[in-house]
Amino acid sequence: MSQSSEPTSLYPTFDRMVPRPAKEQQLGQSGAVLWLYGLSGSGKSTLAQKLEATLHAEGRLVQALDGDNVRTGLNKNLGFSDEDRHENIRRVAEVARLFANSGVIVIVSLITPKNSMRSLVREIVGEEDLLEIYVKASYETCARRDPKGLYAKVAAGEVTQFTGKDSTFEEPIKPDLIIDTEDFSEQKCLDQLRNAAQKKIQFPR
Q1: CA 184/CA 165 separation, integer angstroms
Q2: Taking the CB of residue 123, how many other CB atoms lie within 10 A of it?
Q3: What are the residue ranges spanned by the domains of the chain?
Q4: DSSP state, residue 106
Q5: 177 vs 14, 85, 98, 125, CA distance in Å?
Q6: Which of 29, 158, 170, 205 could make an SS bond with 153 (beta carbons 3.0 to 4.6 A apart)?
Q7: Does the pLDDT at position 159 exceed 70?
Q8: 29-199 has which CATH code?
Protein backbone atom coordinates (compact mmCIF):
# COMPACT_ATOMS: atom_id res chain seq x y z
CA MET A 1 0.00 0.00 0.00
CA SER A 2 1.41 3.37 -1.00
CA GLN A 3 2.03 6.05 1.61
CA SER A 4 0.96 9.67 1.28
CA SER A 5 3.77 12.24 1.10
CA GLU A 6 1.84 14.31 3.67
CA PRO A 7 0.36 11.92 6.26
CA THR A 8 -3.02 13.10 7.59
CA SER A 9 -1.96 12.00 11.10
CA LEU A 10 0.56 14.86 11.38
CA TYR A 11 -0.52 18.08 13.10
CA PRO A 12 2.35 20.62 13.28
CA THR A 13 2.30 22.87 16.36
CA PHE A 14 4.74 25.59 15.33
CA ASP A 15 2.36 28.33 16.49
CA ARG A 16 2.61 27.14 20.11
CA MET A 17 6.41 27.15 20.27
CA VAL A 18 8.60 29.98 21.57
CA PRO A 19 8.75 32.45 18.65
CA ARG A 20 11.96 32.94 16.73
CA PRO A 21 12.37 36.66 17.53
CA ALA A 22 12.39 35.87 21.25
CA LYS A 23 15.18 33.33 20.75
CA GLU A 24 17.19 35.71 18.58
CA GLN A 25 16.80 38.49 21.12
CA GLN A 26 18.06 36.19 23.86
CA LEU A 27 21.11 35.28 21.76
CA GLY A 28 21.68 38.78 20.38
CA GLN A 29 22.06 37.47 16.85
CA SER A 30 19.96 36.67 13.80
CA GLY A 31 19.74 33.04 12.80
CA ALA A 32 21.29 32.43 9.40
CA VAL A 33 22.62 29.69 7.14
CA LEU A 34 26.02 30.30 5.55
CA TRP A 35 26.23 27.61 2.86
CA LEU A 36 29.75 27.10 1.46
CA TYR A 37 30.15 24.87 -1.59
CA GLY A 38 32.81 23.97 -4.12
CA LEU A 39 35.03 21.12 -5.22
CA SER A 40 36.73 18.84 -2.73
CA GLY A 41 39.94 20.63 -1.74
CA SER A 42 38.66 24.09 -2.66
CA GLY A 43 39.04 25.22 0.95
CA LYS A 44 35.40 25.36 2.04
CA SER A 45 35.81 23.16 5.13
CA THR A 46 38.91 25.05 6.24
CA LEU A 47 37.12 28.38 5.91
CA ALA A 48 34.02 27.01 7.65
CA GLN A 49 36.07 25.74 10.59
CA LYS A 50 37.98 28.99 10.98
CA LEU A 51 34.83 31.08 10.74
CA GLU A 52 33.14 28.89 13.34
CA ALA A 53 36.09 29.38 15.71
CA THR A 54 36.14 33.13 15.08
CA LEU A 55 32.42 33.62 15.72
CA HIS A 56 32.50 31.36 18.77
CA ALA A 57 35.33 33.43 20.23
CA GLU A 58 33.13 36.49 19.72
CA GLY A 59 30.39 34.90 21.83
CA ARG A 60 28.17 33.72 18.98
CA LEU A 61 26.19 30.49 19.04
CA VAL A 62 27.30 28.58 15.95
CA GLN A 63 26.62 25.11 14.54
CA ALA A 64 28.81 23.69 11.77
CA LEU A 65 27.45 21.04 9.41
CA ASP A 66 30.30 19.46 7.46
CA GLY A 67 29.71 17.13 4.53
CA ASP A 68 31.96 14.36 5.83
CA ASN A 69 30.55 14.56 9.34
CA VAL A 70 26.88 14.32 8.36
CA ARG A 71 27.66 11.27 6.23
CA THR A 72 28.88 9.41 9.33
CA GLY A 73 25.57 9.89 11.12
CA LEU A 74 22.50 11.63 9.74
CA ASN A 75 23.19 10.57 6.15
CA LYS A 76 25.26 7.41 6.59
CA ASN A 77 22.75 5.43 4.53
CA LEU A 78 23.33 7.57 1.42
CA GLY A 79 25.77 6.96 -1.43
CA PHE A 80 27.00 9.29 -4.15
CA SER A 81 24.48 8.84 -6.95
CA ASP A 82 22.72 12.00 -8.12
CA GLU A 83 19.62 10.92 -6.20
CA ASP A 84 21.54 10.31 -2.98
CA ARG A 85 23.45 13.58 -3.31
CA HIS A 86 20.13 15.39 -3.72
CA GLU A 87 18.73 13.73 -0.59
CA ASN A 88 21.93 14.50 1.30
CA ILE A 89 21.51 18.18 0.48
CA ARG A 90 17.80 18.17 1.31
CA ARG A 91 18.30 16.68 4.76
CA VAL A 92 21.11 19.05 5.67
CA ALA A 93 19.10 22.05 4.45
CA GLU A 94 16.14 21.02 6.61
CA VAL A 95 18.40 20.64 9.67
CA ALA A 96 20.05 23.99 8.95
CA ARG A 97 16.63 25.63 8.72
CA LEU A 98 15.63 24.26 12.13
CA PHE A 99 18.80 25.66 13.71
CA ALA A 100 18.37 29.05 12.02
CA ASN A 101 14.79 29.26 13.24
CA SER A 102 16.18 28.96 16.77
CA GLY A 103 18.52 31.89 16.21
CA VAL A 104 21.62 29.77 15.62
CA ILE A 105 24.23 30.68 13.01
CA VAL A 106 24.71 27.62 10.81
CA ILE A 107 27.83 27.13 8.71
CA VAL A 108 27.42 24.39 6.10
CA SER A 109 30.28 23.06 3.97
CA LEU A 110 29.06 20.67 1.28
CA ILE A 111 30.17 20.21 -2.32
CA THR A 112 26.57 20.89 -3.55
CA PRO A 113 27.58 20.28 -7.18
CA LYS A 114 24.45 21.21 -9.14
CA ASN A 115 22.39 24.35 -9.52
CA SER A 116 19.19 22.37 -8.90
CA MET A 117 20.56 21.41 -5.47
CA ARG A 118 21.45 25.02 -4.69
CA SER A 119 17.93 26.06 -5.68
CA LEU A 120 16.57 23.39 -3.35
CA VAL A 121 18.66 24.79 -0.48
CA ARG A 122 17.35 28.29 -1.17
CA GLU A 123 13.77 27.01 -1.30
CA ILE A 124 14.09 25.17 2.03
CA VAL A 125 16.15 27.71 3.97
CA GLY A 126 14.58 30.83 2.46
CA GLU A 127 16.09 33.91 0.83
CA GLU A 128 16.16 35.93 4.04
CA ASP A 129 18.25 33.41 5.99
CA LEU A 130 20.59 32.07 3.32
CA LEU A 131 24.03 33.29 2.33
CA GLU A 132 25.15 31.19 -0.65
CA ILE A 133 28.95 31.14 -0.91
CA TYR A 134 30.88 29.60 -3.79
CA VAL A 135 34.40 28.66 -2.72
CA LYS A 136 36.12 28.67 -6.09
CA ALA A 137 39.16 26.66 -7.15
CA SER A 138 39.84 24.70 -10.33
CA TYR A 139 39.94 20.91 -10.46
CA GLU A 140 43.68 21.10 -11.23
CA THR A 141 44.40 23.27 -8.19
CA CYS A 142 42.32 21.05 -5.91
CA ALA A 143 44.13 17.99 -7.28
CA ARG A 144 47.48 19.58 -6.42
CA ARG A 145 46.31 20.36 -2.91
CA ASP A 146 44.60 16.98 -2.41
CA PRO A 147 44.31 17.33 1.41
CA LYS A 148 42.44 14.03 1.81
CA GLY A 149 44.34 12.05 -0.83
CA LEU A 150 41.15 11.62 -2.84
CA TYR A 151 42.48 12.94 -6.14
CA ALA A 152 45.35 10.46 -6.01
CA LYS A 153 42.84 7.66 -5.51
CA VAL A 154 40.77 8.97 -8.42
CA ALA A 155 43.87 8.98 -10.65
CA ALA A 156 44.55 5.40 -9.57
CA GLY A 157 40.99 4.35 -10.37
CA GLU A 158 40.18 3.61 -6.73
CA VAL A 159 37.38 6.20 -6.42
CA THR A 160 34.44 6.62 -8.81
CA GLN A 161 31.53 9.07 -9.03
CA PHE A 162 34.00 11.80 -8.08
CA THR A 163 32.76 15.37 -8.44
CA GLY A 164 34.56 17.28 -11.18
CA LYS A 165 35.58 14.10 -13.01
CA ASP A 166 32.93 11.36 -13.17
CA SER A 167 30.18 13.50 -11.66
CA THR A 168 29.50 17.02 -12.93
CA PHE A 169 30.15 20.17 -10.93
CA GLU A 170 28.12 23.03 -12.39
CA GLU A 171 29.33 26.60 -12.13
CA PRO A 172 26.85 28.58 -10.02
CA ILE A 173 24.41 30.98 -11.66
CA LYS A 174 24.28 33.78 -9.10
CA PRO A 175 25.83 33.05 -5.69
CA ASP A 176 25.69 35.71 -2.99
CA LEU A 177 29.46 35.59 -2.62
CA ILE A 178 32.40 34.10 -4.53
CA ILE A 179 35.60 33.39 -2.61
CA ASP A 180 38.48 32.56 -4.94
CA THR A 181 40.99 30.53 -2.96
CA GLU A 182 43.38 30.34 -5.91
CA ASP A 183 43.94 34.10 -6.13
CA PHE A 184 43.80 35.12 -2.46
CA SER A 185 45.45 34.04 0.77
CA GLU A 186 43.58 32.03 3.39
CA GLN A 187 43.40 35.06 5.68
CA LYS A 188 42.07 37.29 2.89
CA CYS A 189 39.40 34.71 2.07
CA LEU A 190 38.46 34.38 5.74
CA ASP A 191 38.17 38.16 6.10
CA GLN A 192 35.92 38.26 3.04
CA LEU A 193 33.73 35.50 4.48
CA ARG A 194 33.57 37.04 7.95
CA ASN A 195 32.57 40.46 6.63
CA ALA A 196 29.70 38.94 4.64
CA ALA A 197 28.65 36.82 7.62
CA GLN A 198 28.55 39.78 10.00
CA LYS A 199 25.97 41.54 7.83
CA LYS A 200 23.80 38.41 7.78
CA ILE A 201 23.87 37.66 11.51
CA GLN A 202 23.51 41.15 12.97
CA PHE A 203 20.48 41.59 15.21
CA PRO A 204 18.05 43.01 14.48
CA ARG A 205 18.68 42.33 10.83
Answers
A1: 25
A2: 12
A3: 29-199
A4: E
A5: 32, 23, 23, 17
A6: 158
A7: yes
A8: 3.40.50.300
